[in-house]
Design brief:
The protein has 283 residues and is an alpha+beta fold. It is built from twelve helices and 14 strands. Strand 8 and strand 9 form a beta hairpin. The longest helix is centred in the C-terminal third of the chain and has 18 residues. The chain is globular and about 60 Å long. Bound molecules: flavin-adenine dinucleotide.
Length: 283
């Protein structure tokens, strides 16, 4: 199938994009890498009257360090993060996540903002940003607001974004020497969307401990109690039984095989984080 007819405008200023979205009153859609919107148009699942291409807006293409945070422009691509072309992210664990998203051709076009706005439950950034405690900044004619990444997605393909709001940036915490990070996704072959995923983020100096399950058909699931227990007690709180119980509580409706996939993701993400090596050293 081919996309229905729509007007196309490439803009180079955030204000132009916002004005076009507002004027469109719900019939205008932003487009970044077009890796999700393109297929939606071709399948006629999206039928906007106008598409506003925001991929070349210079203000959405930068990455900057701000105190403890790194602010990533919404139109920064997965490939740029994978390649470490933006200095503040050169040592960041997001590089490892980017490397596992789809295939290189998709990564060269797909963007951080597009991925968040599309809100596929199995998307890698959705779970990563929830685990990092990232903050999403969106702008509209009413001004700017910041939304916690773990509250951004309301359900599958549904977010808190209003039709005239544009994601302008995502702020993630910068690395410290105490940052421990792990991410694992189970997929049928490399480059596929996840069937189950888990991300863990611990930072003792900032007193942050977050564990998140992704690809669970809805928004990322935060396992607050497990994260707090592991931060407090280390290895002892992360036995396979404890992980299994946490997954069972988070996903009671899933069958045993699905829960096993999530438990395995969680176990591998925790292993990867190296938090247990820290605990053992402290013991
Ligand atoms: C074959 C295939 C495999 C894939 N595998 C994976 C995978 O393994 N993991 C993964 O995470 N993703 C995967 N993807 C998705 C890919 O990462 C896309 O890049 C991403 O979902 C959308 O980003 P985009 O920049 O292309 O957005 P677009 O397709 O341009 O837009 C997607 C949606 O976001 C909106 N939007 C775009 N930018 C903004 C903005 N700045 N503000 C507000 N709304 C905006 C659009 O209106 C649209 O609704 C895959 C895609 C394909 C086609």
């Amino acid at each position: 199938m081919k996309a229905p007819k729509f007007a196309y405008a490439r803009v180079l200023e955030v204000d132009e994009a916002i004005a076009a979205l507002a004027a469109g009153a719900g019939a205008t859609k932003a487009m970044s890498g077009s890796q999700s919107l393109g297929p939606m148009l071709n399948l006629r699942l999206a039928r906007p009257a106008q598409v506003v291409d925001v991929a070349h807006i210079p203000d959405l293409r930068t990455v900057s360090r701000k105190a403890d945070w790194i602010e990533i422009g919404a139109a920064v691509t997965h490939a740029e993060i994978e390649d470490g072309v933006h200095a503040p992210l050169a040592e960041h664990p997001m590089r490892q996540v980017a490397r596992g998203i789809a295939y290189r051709a998709i990564r060269t076009r797909g963007t951080v903002g597009g991925s968040l706005a599309h809100a596929d439950p199995a998307a890698d950034w959705v779970v990563t940003f929830a685990a990092l405690g990232a903050r999403v900044t969106v702008r509209s004619p009413r001004g700017e607001r910041t939304v916690e990444a773990d509250a951004f997605m309301l359900g599958a393909y549904t977010t808190v974004l209003e039709s005239d709001e544009l994601i302008v940036s995502v702020a993630v915490p910068s690395q410290t020497h105490t940052t421990r990070w792990g991410y694992h996704k189970v997929c049928r072959k490399p480059g596929e969307f996840a069937e189950a995923s888990a991300a863990v983020y611990f930072d003792a100096s900032r007193k942050r401990a977050r564990i998140v399950l992704g690809a669970a058909d809805g928004p990322p699931l935060l396992l607050h109690s497990l994260a707090a227990e592991i931060a407090l007690k280390g290895t002892g709180a992360a036995g396979r039984e404890a992980l299994r119980a946490a997954v069972q509580t988070a996903l009671p409706e899933r069958d045993a095989i699905d829960r096993k996939l999530f438990t395995a993701s969680l176990e591998r993400a925790l292993d990867q984080s190296g938090i247990f090596a820290d605990t053992r050293q402290a013991e």
